[in-house]
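so my prof wants the structure for this chain in the C-alpha cells format not the other one, which i didnt know existed until like an hour ago. anyway here's the sequence
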Amino acid sequence: MKSPLPGWRATATSLRRSGARGLLLVAALALLAALGRPALHWPQQQHDLLIVLDVTQSMEVADLLRDGEPVTRLEQARWALAQSLRRLPCGSRVGWGLFTEYRSFLLLEPVEVCEHQRELLAMLGHIDARMAWTGNSEVAKGLYSGLKIAKALSSKPALVFVTDGHEAPPVHPQYRPSDEGAVRVVPGLVVGVGGDRPAPIPKLDPEGRTYGYWAADEVMQRDPRSFGRGGSVAGEQMVDDGPGGAPALVGATPGTEHLSSLREPYLRLLAEETGLVYHRLNDPEALYRALTDRRLAHPIVSRMDVGWMLALVALAAVLAVYLPWPALRDRISALSAGGRERHDRSGRSTRSSLPRSS
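here's what i got, hopefully its the right format
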C-alpha cells in the first residue's frame, strides 16, 4: 500500500507557500497605507486663556490673608493663578495681559502650558504695580478692551479679567462707558479679588514702594460729570441729573472713595452685561475649577498618527515569512535541554557530596 506521507507533505508545502504569499501581500498593503500618513481624529475640548491682571494701586491693598499673614490683592491673585497654571492639562494655552488706566495690554499671546510653564510663571511673577503709570482705574473700559484683544487673537482665547472692581474716578451711572461691541465676543471670567471691608489705598513710588496712603481730599469722590460745567451758578448740575442729582453707581462709595474694597455687585453687573461669568477668588482649587469649566473651552479636532502601527504590521508579516522559525525552535529546545541537563548534574553532584547520616 502506498504511503500517504508524500501527499501530506506536498499539501503542507503548498499551504506554507500560500500563507507566505498572503503575509507578503499584507506587508505590502500595510506599508503602502503607512506611506499615506493615516491618522485618527476625534473631537476634544481645549482651554485657551488670556489672563489680564489689574495692576492699579487699589490692587496693592493688603486686605487678604494667606497662612495667617496679610497679602495684597495682586499677590493673592498671582499666587492662585500660579497654583492653577501648574495643574492645567498639557495642551492648554495661557497668555498674560495687564490692565491700567483705561486699557488692557497684551504681554504674551497664549502658549502651551507644559512646554512653556517656566516662562509663564516667570512672567507672572514680574507683573506688578510698577507697570502702572497713572492712578486712574477705569475698570469697565479695561474689561472692554481686554475682550477686544481676545477677539483679535487668532485662537479666540477666553478672557480672564482679574480685578477688585474699584473705578477711579467714579463713573456717572447715566454716562457709563460704551461696551463698543465687546458683548459676548468670547467667553470668559471676571475674577473679583479683595476684602469686604474698606481699607486705605497705598501710595507707591516708581519702584513700587509704599510711602503713605491716599487721603479723602486727594481722591475724586464723585464722578466728573456731577460737578457740572463750571458755570457761574454754584452747584450747577447736568440737566439729566434732576433735582436730586444722579444716583450712585452700583458699588460706588461717595465720600469714601479713598478707601477700597471688593466691588462685587459692580463686577457681577459687568460680567452679566458682557456675557461673562463672575467668580470670586477665595482659594486656588475653586479658581482652577472655574478656569477649566467647559464654558471657557472651545472644541478642537485632535489627530494621532497611526502610520507607525501599520509599519509594524508590515515588519511583523515579513519576519513571519523569512525568519527560520523551525531552526529557531530547535535551537531554543536544545538550549532548554542543555540547561536542564546541567541543572540535573549539578543537583546530583551536590547530593552525592552530602555526608550520609549514621
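also thought this was worth mentioning. Residues 5-35 form the longest helix (31 residues).
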